[in-house]
Amino acid sequence: MNDKMVNLLMVGDVHVSDRPPSTRTTDYRDDILKKLIEIGQIAKREDADAVVFVGDIFHSKKPEKTSHQTVQAVARILGSYAAPVYILPGNHDYAGRHHENLNRHPLGTVALMPNITLFGTDARRSVLVAPRGITDATYHDVRLIGVREEDELSAFTFGDDEGIDGPTVIVAHSAIFPSGDAPTIWDAWDATEVREQFEDDPAHVWYGHIHEPHGTYDVGGVPFTNLGAISRGSLHEDAARTRTPKVGMLSVWSDGDTDVTEIPLESARDAELVFRIEEVTSERSEASEINAFAEALSAVDIEVFSVESAVQKLSEHPDAPQPVKARAIELVEEVT
């Protein structure tokens, strides 16, 4: 039987924000903070050797859009974890793709906590994670290599030239998709393309950036995992109403084998409680009716010489429901 080396509690995109996304209720920030508190409790309960965040701790990289109170809350929560914390910065965590400026952004402040280490940056691409409380020389550290959102595909190329005896786990904030599922409308990598870059096979590839979970799947003998974001920021996301946010315990064994245990977050509330479902549905219906009304108006030659005549023409239009007429008149009066 293999000796288990390291338990890594892997956490997807977080997106802490003072301002909730448009389809979320106003307690979005508090919901995220409760999840972060629960993650620390899970790490302690499961005796994790480290907690690893795969990017986008904050939703906005701009300091003026994230309050000191929120930054301090995140720092306080992550700083209380019993296990070391390793964070791969995501594209929402820094500006202009310049990691040297991280100290100017909210994540840079959080990273001042003594138990937090950033990796995947220009200054530190990889980190070594050791099993806590074990000094047996037969145990080897696990190497985490960070791949950033802006990195080229070649960033997945690595070898054993650094003299590391233990397994390697690639942690990526990248648009990776299972083979054949990569969308064509934006830059994305097929997992097979990533697999082809390896000079030496890693023990595992764990990635974020994609909010919808892909689960764990095998690509040429290398396991890939994406359990999705722990936040549910938009009703546009696939299965946003039905999926339960999860974290994953990645157990790395001495011969490079890995196991993944998915752990649902109990603090995640039902979609009906966190999304403005009725309001959003009503707003979208109203927007659709207004668009249809506007198309109908575009086909009619209406001479308008004053605000009053415009209001009259709108109120007399035969094809628009009364609520749509009222909203259209309101908009006309606002812009004038």
- Radius of gyration from CA coordinates: 24 Å
The side-by-side strand order for the widest beta sheet comes to 4-3-2-1-13-14
Instruction: Identify the CATH architecture of the largest domain.
Output: 4-Layer Sandwich
User: Strand tally, please?
Assistant: 14
Order of helices and strands: EHEHEHEEEEEEHEEEEEHHHH
CATH names the topology of the largest domain as Purple Acid Phosphatase, chain A, domain 2
Kindly provide the name of the CATH class of the largest domain.
Alpha Beta
Largest sheet at a glance? Answer: 6 strands, mixed
Number of domains: 2
Task: State the shape.
Answer: globular
How much of the sequence lies in strands comes to: 15-25%
Based on secondary structure, the structural category is alpha/beta
What is the average of the pLDDT values? 82
Euclidean distance between termini CA atoms: 77 Å
**CATH evolutionary superfamily of the largest domain:** Metallo-dependent phosphatases
Number of continuous helical runs: 8
Low-confidence stretches: none
Amount of helix: 25-40%
